[in-house]
């Protein structure tokens, strides 16, 4: 079923779409690249921790440092060779100055590396990859780390009037997660309502969304239990207290509960009384980080690095804020028109999302983290050789 969806998308994008089953797993060779071609040579992600769960004791920057260090290690690149670090981070309140630089230095990257924190909400992690590609293509940098990091468990509550004084009467405490991460600032409602608008427009029922979420969760649980995520995972050390030994988080926390179909179908709508989106068919709030290492083809050749993938193209697309979920359907044709899009650049769970053309809520395979999710989607893409080529 999933593969047929991929085939359908391929035929929509290109009449010359070829059968992906015939692809080789051989890594790309740099011999056919130009010196400034952008190559991906390493990747890693932390497990996705549940809200106030196993990773809650670490800040976003600390999680980012784990992902960066692991990605560089797998790329066989010394941290002192990094020219630039770009990390997405949306919920920066309380994280401290320059979160990306904190993460970079925590991973052993030298102080000479230029670091930038990017906030493009859910697309932040993917935007860092395109910015890294641009930096390399223009000759500004040769080795760039890009990714995203978030600790939603550590986002503080705000006291909006505390600085000027509350004077008389009751005050209000504002949730930083909602205010800066999950609230539509233009229409003044929760982002979940955008999903409801999309679901209503495309006639997507509660049953369809539950089935999509259940299937996504089943596949993720199966993939995790079979070790398919092992190649992308960077274990996170949680230091023991009062002399107790450290423990290591190695698996996505949301997947450890398995699949409870009855419970999911019994959940009430979250955002609207007669709505279709629930806590079960929407992604959970989580903590985590992901990173990829990009280099120029010349640098890959010089260092003898294994090239996992080449960045062929990218595109941004935006429209009315409440329709953000359908923006990918505008970006894909842009890349296609530039002649740089191949179907293999789209993971099958995103292909299914595009064919709807967009599912009102993202698959819940592990989590939803404002900045990490786009980069996290890139790591399994690279981990599967037939996708990477």
UniProtKB/TrEMBL annotation:
Keyword Transferase: yes
First and last residue of the signal peptide: none
Domain Thiolase N-terminal: residue ranges: 38-297
GO BP terms in the entry: fatty acid beta-oxidation
GO cellular-component term (any): mitochondrion
InterPro entries for the chain: Thiolase, Thiolase-like, Thiolase_acyl_enz_int_AS, Thiolase_N
UniProt keyword list: Acyltransferase, Metal-binding, Potassium, Transferase
Stored PANTHER family: ACETYL-COA ACETYLTRANSFERASE, MITOCHONDRIAL, ACETYL-COA C-ACYLTRANSFERASE
Name of the protein in its database record: Acetyl-CoA acetyltransferase
Lineage: Eukaryota, Viridiplantae, Chlorophyta, Pyramimonadophyceae, Pyramimonadales
